[in-house]
TrEMBL record:
It comes from the Eukaryota. SUPFAM superfamilies: MFS general substrate transporter (SSF103473). InterPro entries: MFS, MFS_dom, MFS_trans_sf. GO terms for cellular component: membrane. Keywords: Membrane, Transmembrane, Transmembrane helix. This is MFS general substrate transporter. Residues 37-490 form the Major facilitator superfamily (MFS) profile domain. The chain crosses the membrane at residues 39-59, 79-97, 109-128, 140-160, 167-187, 199-221, 233-252, 258-279, 299-319, 339-357, 364-383, 389-414, 426-447, 467-488. It is a multi-pass membrane protein.
């Protein structure tokens, strides 16, 4: 019904008419969307944007050996790591900036600009013929990935108040990440195997163009307007550069075995991150990362446990693919088919996680996700070098399907429901940063363990196992943090809550009803 559609007052989105009465809010006479068709098209565009955002990751996983062979680095494990990690690495650095830009200029503009940017750099990647140029193109495309995540979350959060509707759309949003990464890139993988890896990026550019067109047509100009302000340029530089150099050091160490360049890069990265914390805490007037966001109950512990969980998943997803491709010598297309249980399981796991958040304490959902990831790595670490798919690998993919979706959906809902409306973009960007940094850093740490265990490449199977054992340790650490420190109740709210500023300006009668 039309009364279930969100409305706007200037730059503030208020709840649907169905919840306005319960929350004592007012709505304008006109409606934000012209009908259900526009609302559903709008939501569909945001979900497709999340799907297109994750398809490059899945495509490079399944086709990494084809890409490496065409680039002339098929025997260089360090360069293969860069093929997969370059995209996620830069995405991690620009998530925080994207969240702040969404708050300033509005998530609609940032979402559309980011989708256009990704379209361009996917197309340019198709012309890459050398590893440095390829990595640079994927890194530049990752900028848009970092921007799309907080912008998409901000658009959905402004249209759906806390309640069942938000749980459903956030669940779908979370489900699109693994679903698209594992199953949405099957045509790209097929083209890479039959024709050339260049067609991966041409097809992805075409998908970006269609998604952008749908978003432009479905998004009302009044939705997702920015609140103004300015970008903390110094903080943006310190944070982005610090994260970039920190993750670069771990990935580059697989090439130079922790030579002087990797160590110096790591030291400088840590120094910049320390300077970023000081600047944001004591100097910045409009910080990218307002430190009062950490006042939410156990918010920091939640992000730390999620970070360890995404690192665990980052190791599993890369080395499970390499196990199929390099140890069991499967084709890229068959490897893609082996991800089918993960694709379907992750989709339903995300929806299940969205509803469990409302009925089950969050720490239980987190613990279930981490236990699932731990089991998936245990199964791969103990899988024989030769064997059938329907034993260790099959059940490993099923358990892995639960982990990232439980963690992402729960973290995202908790973040969006506990921070002020003016910090929705920041909350979304923090979760996105944790996700992307975890994936990239997990890949770098896993590659380091592999290179020190595989006896100079003569025992590749042992190298993969070493990476899986690392992931097991990360998951267990996350589980201990959840059990010891994370205490978040189930989320049973319906409708928007007034911010502290609104409560202070409310009349006595209104304040009693908040």
């Amino acid at each position: 019904m039309m009364s279930d559609v969100a409305h706007t007052t200037g730059d503030e989105v208020v709840p649907p008419l169905s919840s306005a009465k319960d929350n004592n809010t007012t709505v304008k006479e006109h409606e934000l969307f012209r009908g259900k068709w526009q609302l559903y098209t709008f939501v569909g565009a945001i979900l497709l944007g999340q799907g297109v955002n994750m398809m490059p990751f899945g495509a490079t996983l399944s086709s990494q050996l084809i890409i490496a062979r065409e680039l002339g680095v098929a025997d260089d494990a360090g360069q293969i790591t860069w093929i997969v990690a370059a995209f996620s690495m830069t995405a991690a650095f620009f998530v925080l900036i994207g969240g702040r830009l969404s708050d300033i200029y509005g998530p609609r503009i940032i979402w559309q600009a980011s989708m256009a940017w990704m379209m361009v750099w996917n197309l340019v990647t198709s012309f890459a013929r050398s590893p440095p140029f390829f990595d640079a193109c994927r890194g530049l495309a990752g900028i848009s990935s970092g921007m799309l995540l907080p912008a998409g979350i901000g658009l959905l959060a402004r249209c759906y108040p806390p309640g069942v509707g938000r749980a459903v759309v956030f669940g779908l949003f979370g489900a699109l990440a693994p679903f698209s990464a594992a199953g949405g890139s099957i045509f790209e993988t097929l083209l890479a195997q039959l024709v050339s890896s260049a067609w991966i990026w041409r097809l992805l550019a075409f998908k970006c163009a269609l998604t952008l067109l749908l978003g432009i047509l479905a998004m009302p100009l009044s939705i997702g307007q920015g609140g103004g302000g300015s970008l903390d340029v110094v903080g943006a530089f310190l944070g982005a550069a610090g994260l970039l150099l920190f993750n670069f050091a771990f990935s580059q160490s697989t090439v130079d075995d922790w030579g002087a360049a990797s160590i110096s890069t790591l030291v400088v990265g840590l120094a910049l991150l320390f300077a970023f914390a000081l600047w944001e805490s004591f100097v910045a007037k409009e910080p990218i990362l307002p430190f009062d966001i950490w006042k939410a109950p156990t918010f920091g512990w939640v992000l730390l446990s999620a970070f360890l969980g995404f690192m665990t998943f980052g190791v599993w997803v890369i080395y499970a693919s390499q196990f199929f491709l390099q140890i069991r010598h499967l084709s890229p297309l068959l490897t893609q088919a082996y991800w089918t249980p993960f694709t379907l399981g992750a989709f339903f796991a995300a929806l299940l996680g969205a509803f469990l958040v409302r009925t089950v304490p969050a720490q239980v959902i987190f613990l279930a996700g981490l236990v699932s990831l731990c089991l998936s790595n245990i199964l791969m670490a103990t899988a024989p070098e030769r064997g059938i798919y329907w034993t260790y690998p099959f059940f490993s993919t099923l358990f892995a399907a639960l982990g990232p979706d439980f963690i992402f959906t729960a973290t995202q809902l908790i973040a969006s429901n506990t921070v002020k409306a003016s910090q929705q973009g920041v909350a979304g960007s923090l979760v996105g940063t944790v996700l992307n940094v975890g994936l990239a850093l997990g890949a770098g740490l896993g590659a380091n363990v592999e290179l020190h265990v595989n006896a100079g490449g003569t025992r590749p199977f042992d190298g993969k196992r070493g990476a899986f054992y690392l992931a097991i340790g990360l998951a267990v650490t996350g589980m201990m943090i959840v059990v010891a420190f994370v205490r978040l109740p189930k989320d049973g709210r319906v409708g928007y809550e007034k911010s502290d500023e609104e409560k202070q300006t409310a009349t006595p009668g209104e304040e009693e009803r908040v």
